[in-house]
Design a protein that fits this description.
Shape: globular
CATH architecture: Roll
Low-confidence stretches: none
Number of helices: 3
Distance between the termini: 35 Å
Helix content: 10-25%
Oligomer: single chain
CATH topology: Nuclear Transport Factor 2, Chain: A
Number of strands: 6
Length: about 130
């Protein structure tokens, strides 16, 4: 699969994620895909289990992609995942095998107030 095809598959994946279209969202994964959440120490094995775990999430979710970068079989998406309106700044690292995601690792960061010691050098990000 070429980079343009992977990029298009990622665009479909994140649009489906935002629309809570669980079938379309998970078309990108291999049947034996592995999803890791290092911060909570969780690993989910298998496309069906990944999909089921996300469908069971009770919160209203919104996905806003900030950027996607990658080449070959390694792609990174930086996005804001809002649960019930509360943002979490998120990075997804996807490793592709034969055109599908074989492994994904997701990292989440909650927003925090800026430090006053650097205020004179920063501008606020919208």
């Amino acid at each position: 699969m070429e980079g343009g095809e992977i990029r298009a598959a990622l665009d479909r994946h994140w649009a489906a994620s935002d629309a809570s279209d669980f079938e379309a969202e998970h078309e990108i994964y291999r049947e034996d895909a592995v999803l890791d959440y290092p911060q909570s120490g969780e690993r989910i094995r298998g496309r069906q289990n990944i999909q089921s775990s996300r469908a069971a999430q009770p919160n209203r979710k919104r996905f806003t992609v900030r950027r996607i970068a990658g080449a070959g079989d390694l792609w990174v998406t930086e996005y804001v995942l809002a649960y019930d309106g509360r943002p979490s700044y998120t990075v997804s690292i996807m490793e592709f095998l034969d055109g599908k995601v074989a492994r994904e690792t997701q990292y989440f960061g909650d927003p925090f107030e800026p430090g006053p010691s650097r205020a004179q050098w920063v501008e606020r990000i919208p």
